[in-house]
């Protein structure tokens, strides 16, 4: 018969346990006044903290979901322990020797529950593997660590170990310590062989113990060392009652206090990256364990970060610059909206992960990598735009359609107008179509019908309220009505300076008809231009512009022609400047130095030319 813990011992455990210390291992607590502490409830999702802890009374209560109790109840609910298991856990922390009653003449400690047994098995396994790392057979594992900049002290700090070249070395060791075969299988430490016996899950591999928030070892990550090992590069503990990979972050136990203190978490991709970051002075780094960063990982971090409307933390993702890393970053952006705080990305210019960066350039380079972070939305938008040729109309429009939903998803609505402007600048487009695309994307996210833009499918007509279109029409009227006066100045500006497609067709027709400088004017000239159009819309516009009054009250003169054509060219140069600025903004000057400075030089030259044209064009139409 299992013994019952004496009531006076339970009371002593409650008395000597600081509930704030217990809860702060999983929840970041801040002063709430009156001696109370407050944090995000670990039992339900919330953005405003309603979980209150009273250290004076050693109790907690959540005003959101109603959970409450003492330290024993918290452990029972948070870690799914029985009452006895929770008391025993707290007694161990407080160095209290528990006494049991109703267990016969010689009271004995009752058998531990399943979770405690599995945790104990992992602790024994971690100790066994760490001891094996010092053996002769583990030399390849030690060399692997040394080649990545980790000495013996670092290996000991992170509990690195080695699984020996034997089928059941760990299994025999743990069976001798009293663990059953079923417990080893349930823990994921061993698996049944075809013969029916048990064999170790990990063999001939370098191992990292994976700890939960409380520091208990709950699983292992194992790295392949030998070429004849036909298994995956990394092999992790399977899902078990104590190991859920979607909830686990490697390094969280070592990083949790700094994450809470700094209000920042750095997400890296591997075990060695976590070690490298911590040793380089970035102690807030953690990594996922064989799975993508997801909602359950976010829930763990939000409680540590105190990620609330009032206190916004920072999440910094570091991904390789290769295609897989970029894809991971875009997935992270999809999860970004679950955070209240700000999300960033840090990518090494040389596409090196933190471990490689530390080896190549030292600890300072790793710290600089994190310091140079950029908002995740900026990175996501750039990755989308890089897929398209923004020098073409089709490329810009398609890029706008793909990027607009990213802007529409921004959780901070006040930032959306700024990102609309930024996206328009990056695309080299006017702001109105980008605003419209983002509004449509917002409507789709809300499940609302999107109003079709009929003008997008119709043939564009000259918009007479557009200043550039007005100038283009005036220049074409001069060529049609007074070609002798327009002459060489008109002919010197080709079709490329006309933004409206119909105007470009008409300008090409003027050249095909012999050019304005050689024309005598009159009906014959106008008819020659109309015949050269080959386009019904352009031909109709010739007839319209041939009789439309010029925008001057007196007879046109060379000065008026000069001003009109200067304004025409100024509009074209300004559009080219906008396109160049968009291209320069998309170039990484560190990776594409020559291209960046070539375009930058062209941009400076065009801006100087635009200033000269603006001065020439002064004096109203």
Keywords for this structure?
DNA Primase, Chain A; DNA primase DNAg catalytic core, N-terminal domain; Dna Topoisomerase Vi A Subunit, Chain: A, domain 2; 5 domains; 19 strands
What does this structure look like?
The chain has 27 helices and 19 strands. The protein is an alpha+beta fold. Strands 14-16-15-17-18-19 form a six-stranded mixed β-sheet, with helices on both faces. The radius of gyration is 35 Å and the shape is elongated.
Layout of helices and strands:
Layout: E1 4-5, H1 7-16, H2 19-23, E2 30-33, E3 36-39, E4 51-54, E5 59-62, E6 68-69, H3 71-79, H4 83-94, E7 100-101, H5 114-132, H6 139-147, H7 152-157, E8 161-163, H8 169-176, H9 181-187, E9 190-192, E10 198-200, E11 205-211, E12 217-224, E13 234-236, E14 249-250, H10 252-262, E15 264-268, H11 271-280, E16 285-288, H12 295-305, E17 314-318, H13 323-336, E18 342-346, H14 354-361, H15 363-371, E19 374-375, H16 376-385, H17 393-408, H18 416-427, H19 431-445, H20 454-457, H21 467-481, H22 483-491, H23 501-512, H24 522-533, H25 536-547, H26 558-586, H27 593-616
Parallel strand pairs: 15-16, 15-17, 17-18
Antiparallel strand pairs: 1-7, 2-3, 3-4, 4-5, 5-6, 8-11, 9-10, 11-12, 12-13, 14-16, 18-19
Helix pairs in contact: 1-4, 3-4, 5-9, 11-14, 11-15, 13-16, 14-15, 16-17, 17-18, 17-19, 18-19, 21-22, 21-23, 21-25, 21-26, 22-26, 23-24, 23-25, 24-25, 26-27
Helix vs. strand class? alpha+beta
Radius of gyration: 35 Å
Q: Please tally the β strands and state the result.
A: 19
- Describe the biggest sheet? 6 strands, mixed
CATH architecture heading of the largest domain: Orthogonal Bundle
CATH class of the largest domain: Mainly Alpha
Task: Report mean pLDDT, rounded to a whole number.
Answer: 85
* Spatial shape: elongated
Give the strand order of the largest sheet, numbering strands 1, 2, ... along the chain. Answer: 14-16-15-17-18-19
Q: What is the number of helical segments per DSSP (H or I, 4+ residues)? A: 27
CATH topology of the largest domain: DNAb Helicase, Chain A
Distance between the termini: 104 Å
As a percent range, the share of helical residues equals 40-55%
